[in-house]
Amino acid sequence: MNTPTFSRRAFVKGGSLAALATPLLAGTALAGPRQTPDTSATGVALHWLSGKRPAAFAGVTWGTPWPRGQVAAGSGFELSDSHGHAFDLQSWPLAYWPDGSLKWSGHALAAHDATDVQYILQPVAQPAAAGKPLVTESATALVLDTGPLRCVIPRQGSQLISEIRRQGQPALLGGELLLRVQGDPDQPVQETRHYRSEVREAVVEQHGPVRAVIALRGVHSAADGHSLLPFSVRLYAYAGSSALRLLHSIVYDGNEQEDFIQGLGLSFQVPLQAPLHDRHVRFVGANGGLFGEAVRGLSGLRRDPGEGVIAAQRAGRATPPLAEPVASGLGYIPAFGSYRLLQAHPDGFSIAKRTASGQGWIQAASGERAAGVGYLGAPDGGVVFGIRNFWQSYPGQLDIEDAHTEQARVTLWLWAPQAQPMDLRFYHDGLGQDSHAKQREALDITYEDYEPGFGSPLGVARTSELELQFIAATPSSERLLAIAERIQEPPLLLASPERLHAAGVFGPAWSPRRAGEEALESQLSWYFEFYRDEVEQRRWYGFWDYGDVMHTYDGDRHVWRYDVGGYAWDNSELSTDLWLWYYFLRSGRRDVFRMAEAMTRHTGEVDVHHIGPFAPLGSRHNVRHWGDSAKQLRVSTAANRRFLYYLTADERTGDLLRAQNEALRTLQRVVPARKIGQQAAADPQQVNLFFGIDWGAVAAAWLTEWERTGDDAIRQRLLNGMRSIAAQPHGFFSGSADLHIDSGSFQRNDSGQLYVLHLSAVFGLAEICGELLQLLPEPAFERAWLDYCRLYNATPEQQRQALGQPLPKTNLKQAHARLSAFAGYWHHDPALQARAWAEFHAGEGGIPRPNQRMREIAVPAYLHPVREAEPVSVIDQRSGSTHDANLSTNAVAQWGLTAIALLALAGPAR
């Protein structure tokens, strides 16, 4: 079916609502699965993720799903609160159902006094007439006007923003990116090279009356013309708002042996006119504390200026006229024009200040964690500035310079110049692994898949969120803390788990919490909270690390195996991302969303190569996120990132999804399983793919692109792949074949061999195939997939009857219980559903006896007291014996996904 593509602008401006069809859940085109038609009203109740009204609200963007056939493409929308008050709304399509109706819509709500905790989103026949766009364009610049702010953004040059005016008065000048790079820090003498942003492209990505998005792309350039670190910065603004959000992404393109980043940040100038004693500096602690001083302090002097003066200065108000002798003696009171907040570690920050360049720094304060939010200004206005996840992404730094002059400078350092330089070198020298045989031997020892040249960070990326808010006066403590809370915890509107489920999105293998599921729900909650708390206990923080978790525990040392080959960082192994997202869909919990969000940001950026010979593949788990030589689609898969895109309408995540559309072409050169026998296709127009971990990722990317655009060519490639897998002699059990890249069709694998890989279905294939059967009905593919689901955990005799021989010894049978459950669900087969529960509880290849027991490890067994999970019983796949083992992220993620799926597909827990 050729589904039309609608532009965002057309969606906002035009179209009428066709007669609403009876809502159909995904999957109703097929006779197999159970049907539960949604007969509810078309309006959707939305709530704040935090469960409360957002602090210092400055606008919000979110995504909402709709059941198949309910909302016609081109429809308009209205948003109202519980009192019936309607709001200006900007809307656009995010995804379509196969019939062309809207599946996901994106929405933007402007800044207003957010006094309600719930809203109603309603499709309407006629969209409201579009208002005046926030952005006007000229040949040389873009002008963004929110009402309170007027921002001038040059199309090219060193400045991201040349000027911001608040209510007509200059508030910011010369906003630019700064980069400092040095050579090998192990050498005695180093020269620092200075770079500035060079914008090469400025594009208005969203041109609406409520929300504007401007994308700036370029590189950091030195005076000699050398460039480094390509960047993209998206500027987000809402009508009526005095805040500007910046989403900053960099890609590392340096030589890790020579280019050590010493500082990376955003810098701008702030005009100041008030007397020095009426200029105010603020820093916010993550504990809700405040550091507040004036550039020229008047308290503590030998001559008391008076209670009224001190009270006004402390509160940030203009001081009353100064009396003598203080008035004539101001020149003898030092004015501290420079302040520096350094978060060098997640458990420690310091604030220092000095009067001017060339003078000494003095220690002003210290603490554990800073919120990464500061303020500089006066009673007639100033700027609040902040970096989200500041202490979590250490080392960070906030600088204020020259605040004693008419033009101060503020720099938000994403990598602190006062910290050690960024060292991205591999952590060992190869250990003599100069041959395939030695690399296989080493893999057997440390689980690290090493190969010379494959451990380079070339192409890895990092995205950071920054915010600026321009205000009319030095804020009260309460208001500054509210702004800081918003920066660190951006508001988000969402539908309930029940409404998300009723829309039929993200497949059938999940359901909201229901009565009677308390035992499994308790264990699901415990496993999540264990990892949430481990992030804090183990300090899994840092610029390149925040968002990920570790792979395997070392009970002997009472640490995770942070330094052991392939056992260190998890890098999405066995779908940790999917576990968190499906648990969020089920629970609606704020803390689950935030952990899943941080993981998606990390795994989509740091664990994937975005340029270079490995782009856009991801890297298998390793001590270094990018260090493993297995560059694979299973890590970069779109399956892990669709949730964040659809729930938040985030453009950067949309870029990462689209980058995966042709990722399979890289596999022509970088064969992921070359060390275990996978061969490159002989035909340059083809690529060899496994039907599971490879094609599952390809299918996720193509499915997402088809949903987003309605592109029939993508749909046909996807359908060709499905049909040609089904046409294999043994379907999915044929294992792999050469795929023609342009058509998406597999060649026939006539080897006659059965091939089953225990990893095939545990990197998103099961979840994506569940959606494909609903969205692209293809009887042969349906049979092939259901055969795989039914037979993987079947008895050898059942396998022999169906395939002519039993399957080679399989693994991860507990995880594959959800495949059994899916087949039972689709075929309405209670016996198969009961088998799935039995497989799950047996726990083979997983966790047979989950528990919630923790134990205390006291000093001196470890550096400090820690709480660790008690070992659990597992079944050895080789011997069949049961033994105790430490908790494994792989096992927990698959246990969680399987529990959630069985509760949805196999009826009540048995």
Automatic annotation (TrEMBL):
PROSITE patterns per record: TAT
Sequence ranges assigned to domain PcRGLX/YetA-like central beta-sandwich in this UniProt record: 135-484
Residue ranges of every copy of the PcRGLX/YetA-like C-terminal alpha/alpha toroid domain listed in the record: 490-907
InterPro entries: PcRGLX/YetA-like, PcRGLX/YetA_2nd, PcRGLX/YetA_3rd, PcRGLX_1st, TAT_signal
Keyword Zinc-finger: no
Signal peptide extent: 1-31
Keyword Cell division: no
Sections of the chain in a coiled coil: none
Domain of life: Bacteria
Domain (PcRGLX/YetA-like N-terminal RIFT barrel) ranges: 44-122
Keywords: Signal
Protein name, as recorded: Tat pathway signal sequence domain protein
